[in-house]
Amino acid sequence: MTESAMTSRGRAEDDGGDLVAAGSSRDTRGEPDAARGDLVFPDGFIWGAATAAYQIEGAVAEDGRGASIWDVFSHTPGKVASGHTGDIACDHYHRYADDVRLMAGLGLTAYRFSVAWPRIVPDGSGPVNPAGLDFYDRLVDELLGHGITPYPTLYHWDLPQTLEDRGGWAARDTAYRFAEYALAVHRRLGDRVRCWITLNEPWVAAFLGYATGEHAPGRRDVPAAFRAVHHLLLGHGLAASALRSAGAAQLALTLSLSPVIEARPGSGEAAARVDALANRQFLDPALRGRYPEEVLKIMAGHGGLGHIRDGDLETIHQPLDLLGVNYYSPTYVSAAEGEPANPAFPGSEGIRFERPDRPVTAMGWPIDADGLRTLLLRLSRDYPEVGLIITENGAAFDDRADGDRVHDPERIAYLDGHLRAVHDAIMAGADLRGYFVWSLLDNFEWAYGYHKRFGIVYVDYTTMRRIPKESALWYRDVVRRNGLRNGE
Ligand code: FCB
Prior knowledge:
This protein has 488 residues and is an alpha/beta fold. It has one domain: Glycosidases (TIM Barrel). The chain is 40% helix and 15% strand. It is built from 17 helices and 17 strands. The strands form five sheets. The protein has an eight-stranded parallel β-barrel, surrounded by six helices. Helix 15 (369-382) runs parallel beside helix 16 (409-427) and helix 16 (409-427) packs parallel to helix 17. It is globular. The structure holds beta-D-fucopyranose. Beta-D-fucopyranose (FCB) binds at residues 52, 55, 200-201, 204, 256, 326, 392, 438, 445-446, 454.
């Protein structure tokens, strides 16, 4: 970080250093004890936190970065709450070294971040920008220097705007440009990064970006959304195959996955259809080399299947080491004749999306830890060949800073409940390797701007000061013990 960046934006606090000191004195009374009923995780379990480039970096015009669809979208009036943008975000681009120190203080063993495509290939295709790679080069070195394993995601929704201007993910060419960009990142970081996550949540990128228009690029064109699904998956396959040939040790794909629950008896078909649209539309091509029949039927009625070419599904179906699971809530549905399709789920005519009567987070998302256990067991039953890793799980609440403290008992309860569900699934045989909490920092929550706080670390957006919330300190103890205490 440059001195001027530090002084102009307010100096980062020293909490990271204090946490390191606290973390290094082992509290043996804290050692997990399975006999006492403590929940002990497997040796080597990966404990991390996750973020994404546009949500935290800021510095959108620095060092040759091009514009992304999220720059253009967030600067379009009416698209993001309060007109918030990622222009400054958490200023992580300048404060990354302090943020890594903070992670080290929490004892994290891994960090999932995303690489901003428009920093690396500002025009989406053509020349690579070395200054953009330099940032991730420094970040990776900083992480490794603190014993933290980097887990980069290559696409977390910030498509270069020039590619959107040429059709975005609805255009086949974007998949090839993605694979080229992925290789450019691998060429620079491949000597130090072992595990590569290609995409984050293609369902969200395709359907919220191209069908409902709630996310960038803000299009409302259902056939384009289905083409986007296919080209995102094709981009994943092309990139995975290119990275594997280039020597990548581990490859992963991160999906938003949600168990679909029948809210009323007799809704089995409704639940199966939504499961096909939300989950199997991505799981089956990537892990089985085929689209579910229900999805093909729906796609055929929304623009046809002409975009699926011979050989594409073989390309998409690459051997994967890990499936990244992002879990927030189940989806509750019931059969309801005459109900129009939910715009986010084209093909869901006759299905009502229900709001169960249970506690919700500040996003209005139902809290249901058991859904995570069900999901993990289902994945390990249906796709036993791939290892699982939770690449996102967490919750937004209306946190307030009180001096140096942020009291967030709801988040601790949420994380505790979900980690217990994770532990249950492991005990029942799920091959689950690690857990990344969403998120390390409060950040730009897409269409909600800075109104939703998901961090275990609070960010004061006027001073950029970071304050570890009580949940961060709780998580630090979980990581240190590699488990949860009985009855805490
Ligand atoms: C996921 C996104 C992530 C964040 C969380 C709350 O869908 O991958 O960037 O917004 O939701």
